[in-house]
Amino acid sequence: MSHEPHDLSQFSLLDLFRLEADGQVRQLTEGLLRLESGAADAAVLDALMRAAHSIKGAAAIVGLHVLVQLAHVMEDAFTAAQAGTLDLHPACIDVLLGGVDLIAQASSVTEASLDDWMLRYGPQIADAVTAVRALETLAVPPLRDVSPGDAAPAAMDPALPQPSPASEVRASAVTDELLALATETRANAHKLASFNASLQRFKRQQSAMLQSLAQLHEAVSASGDPRLIEQAALALARAQPLKLQLQQHMADAETHERRAAQVSTRLVDQVLALRMCPFTEGVHAFPRMVRDLARQLGKQVQLIIEGSDIPVDRAILARIESPLNHLLRNALDHGMETPAERSAAGKPAQGTIRLTARHRGGMLVIDISDDGRGIDPERVRSRVVERALGSAAMAAALSPAELMEFLFLPGFSLKESVTEISGRGVGLDVVQQVVREQNGSVRVDSAPGLGFRTAITLPLTQSIVRSLVVQVQGEAYAFPIAKVERVLRVARSAVHTLENKQFFEQDGVHVGLVAATQILELGQPMPAAELAVVVIGTGAACYALVVDAIAGEQCLTVQSLEPQFGKLRNISAGALLDDGSPVLLLDVADLLLSIDKLLHEDALQQPAGQGGGDARAARRILVVDDSLTVREMERKLLAARGYRVDTAVDGMDGWNMARSGHYDLLVTDIDMPRMDGIELVRLVRQDARLHKLPVMIISYKDRPEDRARGMNAGADYYLAKGSFHDASLLDAVFDLIGPAAP
What we know:
Layout: H1 13-37, H2 42-61, H3 65-83, H4 90-107, H5 114-133, H6 166-223, H7 226-275, E1 276-278, H8 280-283, H9 286-296, E2 301-306, E3 311-313, H10 314-335, H11 339-344, E4 351-360, E5 363-370, H12 377-386, H13 392-397, H14 400-404, H15 428-437, E6 441-447, E7 451-459, E8 464-472, E9 475-480, E10 484-491, E11 496-498, E12 501-506, E13 509-515, H16 516-519, E14 530-536, E15 543-547, E16 549-557, E17 571-576, E18 582-586, H17 588-600, E19 620-624, H18 628-640, E20 644-648, H19 651-660, E21 665-668, H20 677-686, E22 695-699, H21 704-713, E23 717-720, H22 726-737
Parallel strand pairs: 2-4, 9-18, 13-15, 19-20, 19-21, 21-22, 22-23
Antiparallel strand pairs: 1-3, 4-5, 5-7, 6-7, 8-9, 8-16, 10-14, 11-12, 12-13, 14-15, 17-18
């Protein structure tokens, strides 16, 4: 896709030289790398010669005579290669790439600093001219050794500004406004559909009216009154043309709706196309970078880019260029072995990194994979323990996939030594952060000895976001699909309560329930027999937001909120639904922070209603025991008989739940941390609302004095764990509160 502006009158000659040199430098770099890989043909040499010739002419026009000389000798070298008198072996290509770097640097310098730059780099350009000119007289030398401490030949100076044509900057702000207008046009076109639907309803009403008129005419005709018969016939005759007129108006309205929808959709697509560019626009410099760094490290590595023509939003491409760069450098430094190591492992001496882009399910998927040494899960396991991120027992129980998640922690690195390339503890956490900021996700996997793979999933564009639309308290909200892990319907009978927090089990994992109404500050949740939930987050920070209804998926055109609003908590942007109504796009990262804050404040509401369970008015029991085994055994026994059972892990937790819920029976242990069962029973008996609540103590302590202590505290029943069996517990519960259903 060409970046050449339509109006060139506003650009200086130096601006035009920058535009020219930017494209020609890319042509030179890609062609030289193809020559080095052995995949080139005569057409590549011809393109290289023409690119050098074009730069020579453009540099002459703006008076950059030293660059004219450099481009001229490069052109001569390519011509000699075409004639077969010069073999462009790797050492020659090193020299030519050094010249390309100098041309690229010169093209990025501002007009004000050009003289200073020429004074500083003039001698280096002169040396490059001499080196290129000498190529034709040299015999073919062996490939020089490059030690890890050597710099890449004539490396680009990172302090120099990079080309940034003013036309592209301006185009970004024009396209934003055009996109907003195009989206509004499309929304207005969709509104015609509801207008046509109303015409259909009117047509049915008209048909009913005409039928009534016909029946009236028949009834009047039977009466024999000439005057009434004449008036009824006149009314029927006047009404009949209205039917044809309405049909014609409806046909016209449907045609207008169809055309308006087509034009508005095409308009949005065309505006979006202005924001798109081929994937290669953002990654064209990577093959050169991989080549230079590989030689710097004494390795042989080729980078294969697949999906170069895949269209990507320019803004997204610009933001992920740095993470992709980091991943490639990691693959070179961490993953790739030296030629000797690869040969010893039975691999080709040259390693391969693949950078692949493709569209899948309306998303952009970028894979970076290599055939290097991969990551040994045991090294990660050891580092987790060394850094006190978990106990040895916990680390030993982690699966390979779970171990890979530690690579995303800040400062987590497997590199033993610090180098200029990697190993400074700034790694995948930065990559993950940038990707998440673009509403994307990143996953890694590794096969020890075979390679490492990173998969990045991103929206095709930040302007259009594929979203899940939900209803909360009558308002529409949208989640970016890329941030949604799962959408479910959960029966209230599947909801459990622990420590005053509700959860359900999904694939053997407890997923916490959170009311969207509470997070968005929209009031109290409305319990229902079945809960619609949207699962967000991963790992330990995975939660199910309870919403009123799932409206479905839509591709929303994102519009930034007005700056005067500042950053709204939990909200990232606004959009218009297909029917033209506004919707707020939720910021999932903010939502997770808000949930975490409420968890620490112990302020989460219970979206399934007090205690969860099914919707029947079954009697509710609170079981308090610090033993997970005992607690779950008692819960299952009672639940199997139809009781609604909640559990608490100690006396303090039980006290908080008893005060916030409405229970028919409290079953508690005695020896528990924070608050024992005796103190819990005393507090219950002293509470004005709870003092009549039946209480059963189940304890291993079976001495008479223990029983007396429990009964004196206010317990209604004392059962010893050592002697009780299923029937004794159920019989005792039945004696105290009766059957599960009242």
